[in-house]
Amino acid sequence: MSKHRFIPWPLLRTVWWLGLMVLPLQAQSQTPDQVGRWASVMNWPISATHMALLPDGKVMFYGEFAEGALPPRRWDPSTGALSSFPSVGYNIFCSGHSFLSNGKLLVTGGHVARDVGLPDTSFFDFNTTSWTRLPDMNAGRWYPTNTTLNNGDVVVTSGEIDGPGDINEIPQRFIAGTSSWRTLTNARKNVPFYPKMFLAPNGRLFYAGSLRASFWLDPASNGAWSNGPISNFGSRSYGPAVYIDGRVFLIGGSEPPTATVERIDLAAANPTWQYVAPMSIRRRQHNAVLLPDATVVVIGGSSGSGFDDSSAAVRFAEVYNPATNTWTSWASNVRYRGYHSTAVLLPDGRVLSAGGANERTAEVFSPPYLFKGARPAITSAPTVSLPGAQFTITTPDAANISRVSLIALNSTTHTFDMNQRFLTLSFTRGAGSLNVTAPPDRNMAPPGYYQLFIVNNAGVPSYGRRLRIPPP
């Protein structure tokens, strides 16, 4: 349940109880250290239907429908400056995208028309700001999902080929070392587009939704699916899923929307879905972002029935704390962030929320932890670590640090961040330093770039530092 029962502006409503009218507190009437603060709306030249945080800390975004053929844009969080990247040469709307271990963004599929996908693939190099065309996939994919494996390869799943329901049923494995494709011919399955897929601690891929049934995919050899546990609620279309320390959380979604949330521990001997505390309001078409303090902020969405009901827009953010199994309502933004909206965690701990159908705007949210005192400082930290290795973070705030977090770079579209995961790192305190242990293996931390944060006793995070887990 929510810690604070208040209704944020502009969604004030009255509650009648025992004949008395009670006017709940507005989130905006509270202070930023309680509910955070939204910055002014920014006007952007295209929508941000697809958005990724690049390893250099800049944000890449590209738009919907015809905008997918335009040059992607770059937004600099430190200056607010907008600029253009080169065009890839075809329409990348409704593509899949995730990062390779070298920080290049792998983009799979694209747009011919609604429900008609492209077989094209490319990667974008943030160092040279250039695109490289790669071999085509076995067929078109419109709404595919990319999932990174423990050796840095990427499995691409689902996506429509040539019309509604014409799903590309055969996953393919992108072999990173040779930039080639291996088709998983023994793994044919019709799973809905943009499936919520995660690399599990056992090295297999876990399909968490949006179907009620879940599945395991063994990506070795020619591939093989096996059945997983059944979730409690049912289908959760257009609801996000996040990964925290081996656990997957499904948050809302469905039609009509639900407020329910489910969790599964993929490291358990027999993983099962369990309900946890629900959101304070039902949501569909919302985004969920992992924060450095191990909480999850949910932004936007609609509480109304229908595909994308802007008349029932939910504008207040709310945050889930897995440690206490509680939700807390935060401040409200201005614009409706529903279908085709995106959100990412910035290196300074703020959250960028942008896009929506025909919505060429963006807003930045500063969570309450940014109003709770000075940040802890990282004086020095490594830029590369092997799994299981010990490394040192130098900080004058060592005595007051309560958490070290590793968060994979965001790469999000259509309510799902294909690249995200949150990892809590164990550490011991020294004099002006932290002795930190990297994740035990690449099943827990797939190869690639992460943001490294330290968090103090007040919950305030440092600036994120770039840390890379290399491939084997």
Annotation keywords:
about 475 residues; single chain; mainly beta; five-stranded antiparallel beta sheet; 1 helix; disordered N terminus; 42 strands; six-stranded antiparallel beta sheet
Structure commentary:
This protein is an all-beta fold. The protein has 1 helix and 42 strands. The chain has a 6-stranded antiparallel beta sheet with strand order 8-7-6-5-36-37, with no helix packed on it. It starts with 14 loop residues before the first strand and ends with a strand. The relative contact order is 0.14. Mean pLDDT is 94; it is low at 1-27.
Task: Please provide a brief summary of the model.
Helix content is 1%, strand content 39%.
Helix content: under 10%
**Strand arrangement across the biggest beta sheet:** 8-7-6-5-36-37
Radius of gyration: 21 Å
C-alpha geometry: globular
Structural class, from secondary structure content?
mainly beta
The number of E-state strands comes to 42
Number of helical stretches of at least 4 residues: 1
Strand content range: 35-45%
Mean pLDDT: 94
Main sheet?
6 strands, antiparallel
Uncertain regions spanning at least 5 consecutive residues? 1-27
Straight-line distance between termini? 43 Å
Write the layout of secondary structure elements.
Blueprint: E1 15-17, E2 20-22, H1 32-35, E3 37-38, E4 42-43, E5 50-53, E6 59-62, E7 73-75, E8 82-84, E9 96-99, E10 105-108, E11 111-113, E12 116-117, E13 121-125, E14 130-134, E15 145-148, E16 154-157, E17 172-175, E18 180-183, E19 196-199, E20 205-209, E21 213-218, E22 224-230, E23 241-244, E24 247-251, E25 261-265, E26 274-276, E27 287-290, E28 296-299, E29 316-321, E30 326-332, E31 341-345, E32 351-355, E33 361-366, E34 390-394, E35 401-408, E36 411-413, E37 416-417, E38 422-425, E39 427-430, E40 433-437, E41 448-456, E42 465-469
